[in-house]
Design a protein that fits this description.
The structure is a homopentamer of 254-residue chains.
Chain A (H helix, E strand, L loop, with lengths): L2 H20 L9 H18 L2 H5 L1 H9 L6 H18 L5 H6 L3 H11 L4 H50 L7 H52 L4 H9 L13
Helix pairs in contact in A: 2-8, 2-9, 4-9, 5-9, 5-10, 7-8, 7-9, 8-9, 9-10
């Protein structure tokens, strides 16, 4: 569980509810038809914008934002350097048992290919195709949330226009104008909330998660290439450490 | 038929009509001159923005959004691996009969060239030109819908300004101000609807469809290059599978 | 004459005039000082934004949008394939008379260089420099229209603010408020019209025209390279046809 | 002096002053505190956004927009072709005296390196570093004006909000509401004027000036490479002419 | 301490406070719940948008904007040229003592690798990975401030909508409408202030700082490659000076 995302969402919710309660109470801010037109309408527009297969993984994608499958990069470097040390001493075939127990599917696939004696160029090509395709798919999924942001805002505006027209057509009772306009504004408010609390921020964190994952895959490709060409483990570690922030770098050789 | 797009459009329509009906009824929201200025005006502006040939295929492009010519990627991989197996055993000339029955024009063209003994580099160059040109044309067509989104919004605003000026010039009867302003707002509402229900979402799904098609073509080029150079069918399958999402990958060799 | 652009402009004009006439008539929508501030002001801002040489060709650029110098691509392919056939049979020097009568300056220049015996690499380099520089100049010119779009909108807003301030300063006579505000809104309306009927759409079609021209030049470069290296006319035609849409392709060898 | 920019600024100024004078006169549009908050506030925000060294050259950068240091391209081509002719006849060392009198620092530096016998690759690398770094610095400077555009608009909005709040807090005297609101709107008007008359257009012309300068440098690099490798002057001229627009090209060999 | 940033912030603060004080005084512009919803809400949305590790360095990143760790580029060039001179005379191993006292970690790392006899290609690769990764991390951090700009504006709008709805629901007392609306507008004002005084400008200066740092690293890589390949110190200086603006260049050889 990534606490930042959850704490952020709770913080906004508390502030919004408190500021509503301090005025006229929560009641006037809740209007089911307005919720339906903004949420339902924007999800309808998302269904037009994306493939059904992408929409089906909507919740799964949201969960990645709040509970990412993180890879400990220092652990990964240690593991790759360990593999390099073993391969240098006993040959690359000695890694067969480690590969079978490897949980990271990407590393497992690459190492298996290296052990099977594939050419370095074809291993790199295959792994890079996989890395790029995965990243493209993830970006396409994150785009659902950034599109949601814009579409919710637009449905909010459409809802407010529908409400305003109804109000203007019906101005016989002046005392009803204020509340009618208040209700008309609710859809704009809902749209802005969905867009700026869910849509935009979730799309942003999904982009960061995807970059993190791509970086780990790049480190794995670098590692496998080094192991196969029999580089010194110390040199491999130095190269992998330069992917990290300076304060994260801990060498196991010192 | 791609259900997502259709269900999405129906869902939005139902929600909008229901929210109008709950207020003052559908009637006040329909104003033919306003529809004409927004729809006609934005299509006029599209005719200035694009070539007649592009505008003519407006409906055809829209149909691609809701009914895409999809290629089953697993079937394609199976077929390419089958071709590779046969070409390896009996030589590439043995593929002649398969090529003649091949429905995919892009694959057919590439394979014919390989059988005719063209150089791999010139086959790749020709197929890549075709892939890029097709993709450029498709993006140009999808741009009609994204431009429509902006132009409909602008024509809606212009319509509202025309209505507001008429209303402000004629404020003798205070009871007419409300309804006049309501009518003036209708063009903005129509513009927002066209832009955010048709324009934007359709442009987005067309972009996704185009990326899908380009990916299939990339897989075909990879496949033909492998078949011509006599790669092992197993290696070709591994490479092609890395274009798919992990949960879609099914090897025919296991 | 490209009918699409002209029909589009006429259609919008008719719709706008009709919608004005149906309300308070055309008269109230015409205000010469407002026209001056939006048109004059935005052209002034364009003169700050671009070089005098670019502004001078303003009308010439506009004419390209409505009356483009189109090259028939099938004719071009036939001509290039004809050249390739002749060059293969009688040597490249045999093309001298064709070159002298060639109307397309770009093709003429490239072929002359080939006949004069220049290196393929230096011909390609020179033609590509010319192609890129032309495209860059054209994009710079098209940018005048997209900038106009934004600047006209801004001058419209400035004009409305000037009018609003005058109105607010002078609210003694309530019956004058409506008409004053109407006049103030006119500049915003003019700005939106210029931006969304002329500015944006013209910039868009100019971009498409430029891409079309660049594509033709790319085909010519491909053709000249093939003629010089003595490729088979059939292979050259296949390569050139892949630049076209599938339904446009007609081979002269079948 | 580049007349376009100056004429443009004068034209806008005249139109704005005239349109103000025709209404309530110039007086009501001038409010020193509003000018201070928009101009001072946006320059303050620019000081946060850029380095002091960049802000110091604010006026110098503005002068480049209205009085650019232009290089006559035809003269440059003649000069480079002249150098090539001389170098071919008498050897590259014969250019020493020309180099000493060369006013263009970039050309002087490159030619000196060529005469000193540096490797073509290292001359090209050094000149390209200088060209790119200069262009990056210029773009960073032009960004001051495009940022100013946005920040002036934002400070205008903040000023209007400050004024509106003051007005709304103090609605006892209805006759004061109009003028108070007029004053509140002035900051938005100033912001829009700065952004769309100075900020945006100046940033645009600076970008064009920078592209022009980079193009001249590219021509110089091409020229020096040709002179050093002893290309025929005629071939060099043909290559350099393809950087110009067709109607600007005048060969000295015809 | 970079004075520009601090002076800019103080200047804006003084102008804003003065313009408030001149109207209704500072008091009415301060509303704690409004501050909470804009500042708290936007920081909550930032916590959803970024990883906790990035948010933790929020203050540290802000300090880089106002107090950057600047490298004197002329000093760096002198140092690198000095190293090159020594390495050319006494061999690269003679630089060992200088390296140990080198404060710049990036230069130290690269030189150590060169002294240890690593291949130039692998030194360059490792240093470029580190340079790119650092730059990517910095851009990700600067993005916090540009996102803050948008999210603060959005939370301001949401706050104003909440206030407007409360006001419209409760219009019994007409004299309260003005002040209620004034309070509702405060959140929009706070949002615009945060976005355009902190968010945007800080993000901009962080981008400039990052480009400066990357440029210094590029110069260091160029220097180390030259030292290792034994280039002439004069040639190295000429290359490094071309990274600077012409008026900054001072050669130590003249």
């Amino acid at each position: 569980m990534d606490l930042g995302t959850v704490i952020g969402l709770v913080l906004i919710l508390v502030l919004l509810v408190a500021s509503m309660a301090m005025g006229v109470g929560i009641g006037p801010y809740i209007d089911i038809p307005s919720v339906l037109i903004v949420v339902g309408g924007s999800i309808g527009a998302l269904m037009v914008s994306f493939k059904p297969a992408q929409m089906k993984s909507f919740v799964k994608i949201f969960m990645i934002a709040i509970k990412p499958p993180q890879e400990d990069r220092m652990e990964l470097i240690k593991k790759l350097v360990g593999f390099a040390t073993k391969a240098r001493k006993d040959g690359i075939l000695a890694l067969e048992s480690e590969v079978n127990n490897e949980p990271n599917a990407f590393l497992k696939k690459g190492l298996s290919m290296a052990i099977d004696g594939n050419e370095p160029d074809s291993i790199r090509e295959l792994l890079e195709i996989e890395m790029e395709q995965t990243s493209t798919r993830h970006k396409g999924n994150a785009a659902i949330f950034s599109q949601w942001s814009g579409l919710a805002g637009a449905m909010g505006m459409i809802g407010t226009l529908i409400g305003l027209v109804a109000m203007l057509m019906n101005m016989a009772d002046p005392s009803a104008i204020g509340p009618s306009m208040a209700v008309a504004l609710l859809t704009t408010m809902y749209g802005a909330m969905i867009g700026n609390i869910f849509g935009g921020p979730i799309a942003n964190i999904l982009g960061i998660r995807n970059d993190d994952e791509a970086l780990v895959k790049e480190m794995i490709i670098t590692g496998i290439m080094s192991i196969q060409s029999g580089d010194a483990p110390r040199a491999l570690e130095a190269k992998l450490l330069s992917y990290l922030a300076p304060n994260e770098r801990v060498s196991q050789f010192n």
